[in-house]
Design a protein that fits this description.
about 30% helix, five-stranded antiparallel β-sheet, alpha+beta, single chain
Length: about 170
């Protein structure tokens, strides 16, 4: 849920993913960490430093770090949904009365998995209270294996499913 709303059905039906940025009225003409950071500091200066820094990281990741072809994963209730980020820059928009940044995503209709069927480490990395954008690189091969069953999960990436042959020693962001 985002802002107490389940946005996943909208995301999947409209082929997008969003990040809530309530006070952001426009993006800087030149998108850099510095320009985005200065904008966030200006707009969210009244927030506690920890919350402002989290907003800065989320916006940086969503706008600058997420690249076309990147795997996107979200949890819809108890179901994991996955897709691929498409070409195109982040754009400011309005969704359900909230100001958001949006990116285009090709959601896989078949890439749905019950969270309880996943390995413990992967399951724990997919539960991200307090963070809007999470870097899942450490478990990317386990997620890729869920998206494409012909891909083998790599060692130490969290494991796609429970089982004796899967290494679940390590953890997994747009």
């Amino acid at each position: 849920e985002v802002d107490q709303q389940n946005r996943v059905p909208t995301w999947t039906s409209q082929s997008l993913v969003t990040l809530t940025v309530g006070r952001l009225t426009q993006l800087p003409a030149v998108l850099t960490q510095g320009s985005l950071g200065a904008l966030i500091d200006d707009l969210y200066g009244d927030m506690a430093v920890v919350k402002r820094e989290a907003k800065r990281r989320d916006v940086w990741s969503f706008v600058l770090a997420m690249q076309p072809g990147d795997l996107v994963a979200t949890v819809d209730g108890a179901t994991l949904r996955m897709g691929r980020l498409l070409d195109g820059a982040a754009e400011r928009d309005s969704l359900g009365g909230s100001t958001v940044l949006r990116r285009a995503v090709s959601w896989s209709p078949d890439a749905t998995h019950d969270i309880t069927s996943l390995g413990a480490m992967l399951r724990s990395r997919l539960r991200f209270p307090g963070d809007d954008v999470v870097n899942l690189t450490e478990v990317s091969s386990a997620l890729e294996a869920l998206l494409d069953p012909d891909v083998e999960p790599g060692p130490g990436d969290g494991g796609a499913t429970e089982g004796p042959d899967i290494n679940v020693d390590s953890p997994v962001e747009p």
